[in-house]
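Deliverable D2.4 — example input (structure tokens):
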């Protein structure tokens, strides 16, 4: 992660500069895999169209069993949400007991989050059937992503909007199908419904009606499918403007699984978020983790990007610092250990796609954590800021999702097509910074793969040849890979820009 500060700030400028020409491509990439049409999302949330009252709302309040007009203050008072709020408050207080916000970091406005005037709006629906490697019986996941808006709909005496988008996302994760549907609904059918949207030119109210109708892509998106809630909150920011992407910002990320027995969301270990501090403090646990990781089947899963680490090695929270200042797994493995692991894999004829060097091993392990992924090609710490249909807050973010999100769409679409056609499923993925080359023909020449502003790599300094893990990270011929930093064992990822 060395040099990430340059990459993050430089990339934001690069990406926003070229977002206009890429907007059409982005729309094509997400269609059939994600729903970002603002008016369709508004209709799915508010159900405003005459005659649509029989269609259930996908508002956060309704999905959690609250009255349709419930606002944020009401939602956090629900019995199911009280453990979630208590855990957020505890970690918030713990963070600021160690970090002094005054004059350095401005804290997230918790009062606004819990206020009666704040509303969570549905800002996106994302198909994640590519996550079925974790739970094949559920066909993967569907995610409803919400953003809180303070002073929702409130206007001053001059009619000007007084609302404000709070820097937070709440991700309601649902199983694509639940246990009672396994005999009647196939994964192929669910994939077919989503992929059919690629050729459907509807938008707004008409698209919402198609999605929610019987046989539509969202027919099975109901409260009975809820699996967990994931939160990502910009807990502190060095600038008064939370949309200043060049200033330091810290994010608190947490996961809350739905517990059917208590009918509440309980704090849970975060998938692959290695508890680095605990492992470094407890050598025996660290040794157990290393033994687990170097087992052939687990090393292959890490290489493919589908490892599922045991919960005893994981944390229940992540503080994500952007721009990144260090690796989230630094110190767990020495370079000599990494060399030995890879040499043993080679001796045992284990074929690895990404772990071809110590730097590749280090980056993949960091990449697999929630924190490492969200520090890579995100927009201010978020991979999906979402579409805003409220009409009140100024549109600081002009695209609903990050380059990481768009770069991963060809892989996700490929998996949906395999589901639909009942072909063998390949859930493998590349690094967060670069899409899988073999599934990215549509991205060639764009900022997502090897075009202007893309992440790249070139040998520097004492290196005789390119690092094998990143040999394919080249730019198109018209561009030059400009590296921000020399030295160190970690990959020094640069950006594709015109030479000189």
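Example output (designed residues):
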């Amino acid at each position: 992660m060395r040099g990430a500060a340059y990459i993050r700030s430089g990339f934001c400028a690069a990406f926003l500069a070229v977002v206009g020409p890429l907007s059409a491509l982005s729309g094509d990439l997400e269609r059939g895999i994600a729903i970002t049409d603002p008016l369709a999302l508004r209709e799915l949330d508010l159900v405003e169209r005459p005659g649509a009252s029989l269609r259930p709302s996908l508002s956060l309040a309704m999905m959690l069993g609250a009255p349709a007009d419930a606002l944020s203050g009401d939602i956090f008072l629900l019995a199911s949400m009280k453990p979630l709020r208590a855990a957020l408050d505890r970690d918030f207080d713990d963070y600021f007991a160690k970090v002094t916000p005054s004059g350095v970091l401005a804290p997230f406005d918790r009062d606004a989050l819990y206020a009666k005037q704040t509303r969570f709006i549905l800002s996106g629906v994302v198909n994640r059937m590519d996550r079925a490697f974790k739970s094949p019986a559920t066909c993967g996941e569907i995610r409803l992503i919400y953003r809180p808006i303070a002073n929702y709909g409130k206007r001053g005496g001059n009619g000007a909007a007084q609302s404000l988008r709070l820097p937070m996302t709440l991700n309601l994760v649902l199983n694509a199908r639940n246990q009672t549907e396994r005999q009647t609904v196939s994964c192929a059918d669910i994939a077919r419904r989503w992929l059919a949207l690629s050729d459907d030119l509807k938008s707004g109210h008409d698209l919402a009606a198609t999605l929610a109708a019987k046989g539509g892509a969202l027919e099975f998106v109901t409260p009975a499918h809820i699996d967990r809630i994931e939160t990502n909150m910009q807990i502190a920011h060095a600038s008064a403007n939370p949309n200043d992407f060049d200033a330091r910002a810290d994010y608190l990320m947490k996961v809350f699984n739905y517990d059917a027995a208590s009918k509440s969301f309980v704090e849970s270990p975060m998938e692959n978020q290695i508890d680095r501090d605990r492992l470094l403090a407890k050598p025996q646990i660290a040794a157990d983790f290393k033994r687990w990781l170097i087992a052939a089947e687990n090393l292959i899963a890490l290489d493919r990007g589908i490892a599922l680490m045991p919960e005893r090695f994981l944390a229940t929270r992540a503080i994500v610092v952007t721009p990144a200042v260090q690796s989230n797994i630094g110190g767990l493995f020495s370079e000599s250990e990494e060399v030995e692991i890879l040499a043993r894999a080679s001796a045992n004829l284990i074929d690895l796609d990404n772990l071809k060097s110590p730097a590749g091993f280090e980056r993949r392990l960091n990449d697999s954590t929630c924190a490492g992924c969200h520090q890579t090609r995100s927009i201010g710490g978020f991979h999906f800021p979402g579409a805003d249909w409220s009409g009140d807050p100024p549109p600081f973010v002009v695209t609903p999702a990050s380059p990481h999100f768009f770069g991963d769409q060809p892989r996700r679409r490929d998996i949906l097509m395999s589901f639909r056609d009942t072909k063998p499923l390949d859930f493998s993925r590349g690094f967060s910074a670069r899409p899988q080359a073999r599934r990215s023909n549509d991205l060639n020449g764009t900022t997502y793969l090897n075009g202007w502003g893309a992440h790249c790599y070139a040998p520097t300094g004492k290196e005789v040849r390119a690092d094998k893990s990143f040999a394919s990270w080249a730019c198109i011929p018209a561009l030059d890979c400009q590296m921000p930093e020399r030295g160190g064992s970690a990959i020094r990822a640069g950006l594709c820009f015109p030479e000189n």
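Residues 66 and 78 are 8 Å apart (CA to CA).
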